């Protein structure tokens, strides 16, 4: 019995007290880690998340004087420092992004570190917040001056917390990106509806002319526009154009331009050159830098049997005569609208007969049909128009089909067609 007692001595009161104290400390730290693990995934903003991290780490490491969390934003363009001293308020500071750091410094920060105290400054430790292999942020803890150095166990605990921070932060940002994506999609859908409201839904017959249109934006919204406006008995003005730029910016400008054209075309007996000249004045007055509009304006008059065209740097309209001959109409009588404030334009006049078909299009057609033996893509359209039946919808369908074939369905630009036929 005495040997057994010597082999298994009872702990001294001081040792037992120390074991009990250590056990309580382990229990306290496990409870703190459990609270962190439970709380972080439930928070809805980054400020809440990182504030909770600061509070939790100050609670977990009782001798801590200061906790700092340095986190890159979702675009990696800048970072924010979250900082709290024990007993102090949360402080945040915007700073340069992690991506701006030289690669060698980034590599240094990506390594967990323990730094011993030097008497003047307390011991420190840091652990990286990683997103895959990328450095997303850094957690730094500093103890009071004169405190014991942090242990490897402390550092392991901090590494476990930073792993939870990373998962919670990535989950939160995924939710934010999804929410933002849905908002952008709703905005695009609204922009699409608004833009389409500026593009007229034309009947198949307007004032003695047959009409067919085709509008295919490269994105949800585009910068192409078209319109047909009746200006008198047996008369109409047809216009087609392209605002420099795609997407929402192009669509917004297109909406403004199409409204202005409709207003100008409604002014009694304005010639195409006058419409473009006044449109250029209005556009230039907007003071929009780095933007312009190409446009072709055509006036068809059955009573005088005349076709008048003015062109502001746009694709030339084509006419297929009733005889079957196809030819371009006019010339670029001036630069795109908005390039030169005091620019004027000129009219070209052609005969117009019953059965003539006039085709207006945007450069999305010709750019797609460009090839070595037809660098402008125009001859492909001329050949197609010459061989197509006298059906406006079928002409448009064949042009769209040829464009889709040449581009493999990946059109780089908006495509718009406005086709008119002079009635008998």
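Sequence proposed for the structure above (424 residues):
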């Amino acid at each position: 019995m005495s040997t057994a007692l010597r082999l298994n001595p009872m702990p001294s009161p001081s040792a037992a007290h120390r074991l009990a104290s250590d056990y309580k400390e382990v229990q306290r730290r496990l409870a703190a880690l459990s609270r962190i693990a439970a709380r972080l995934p439930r928070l809805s903003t980054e400020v809440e998340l990182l504030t909770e991290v600061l509070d939790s780490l100050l609670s977990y490491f009782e001798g801590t004087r200061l906790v700092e969390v340095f986190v890159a934003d979702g675009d990696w363009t800048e970072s924010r420092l979250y900082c709290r001293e024990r007993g102090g308020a949360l402080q945040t500071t915007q700073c340069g992004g992690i991506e701006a750091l030289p690669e060698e410094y980034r590599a240094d920060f990506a390594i967990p570190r323990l730094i011993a105290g030097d008497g003047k400054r307390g011991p420190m430790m840091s652990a990286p917040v990683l997103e895959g292999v990328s450095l997303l942020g850094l957690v730094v803890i500093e103890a009071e001056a004169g405190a014991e150095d942090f242990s490897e166990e402390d550092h392991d605990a901090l590494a476990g917390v930073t792993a939870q921070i990373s998962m919670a932060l990535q989950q939160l940002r995924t939710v934010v990106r999804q929410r933002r994506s849905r908002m952008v999609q709703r905005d695009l859908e609204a922009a699409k509806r608004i833009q389409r409201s500026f593009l007229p839904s034309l009947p198949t017959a307007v004032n003695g002319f047959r009409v067919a249109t085709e509008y295919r934006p490269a994105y949800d919204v585009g910068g192409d526009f078209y319109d047909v406006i009746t200006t008198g008995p047996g008369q109409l003005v047809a216009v087609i154009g392209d605002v420099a730029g795609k997407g929402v910016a192009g669509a917004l400008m297109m909406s403004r331009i199409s409204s202005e054209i409709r207003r100008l075309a409604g002014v009694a007996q304005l010639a195409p050159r006058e419409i473009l000249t006044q449109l250029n004045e209005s556009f230039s007055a907007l003071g929009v830098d780095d933007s312009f509009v190409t446009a072709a304006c055509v006036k068809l008059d059955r009573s005088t049997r005349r076709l008048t065209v003015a062109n502001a740097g746009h694709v030339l309209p084509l006419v297929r005569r009733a005889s079957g001959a196809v030819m371009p109409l006019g010339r670029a009588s001036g630069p795109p609208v908005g390039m030169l404030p005091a620019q004027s334009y000129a009219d070209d006049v052609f005969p117009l007969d019953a059965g003539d078909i006039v085709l207006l299009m945007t450069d999305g057609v010709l750019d797609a049909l460009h090839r070595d033996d037809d660098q402008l893509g125009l001859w492909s359209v001329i050949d197609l128009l010459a061989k197509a039946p006298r059906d406006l919808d079928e002409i448009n369908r064949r042009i769209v089909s040829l464009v889709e074939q040449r581009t493999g369905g990946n059109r780089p630009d908006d495509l718009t067609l406005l086709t008119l036929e002079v009635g008998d």
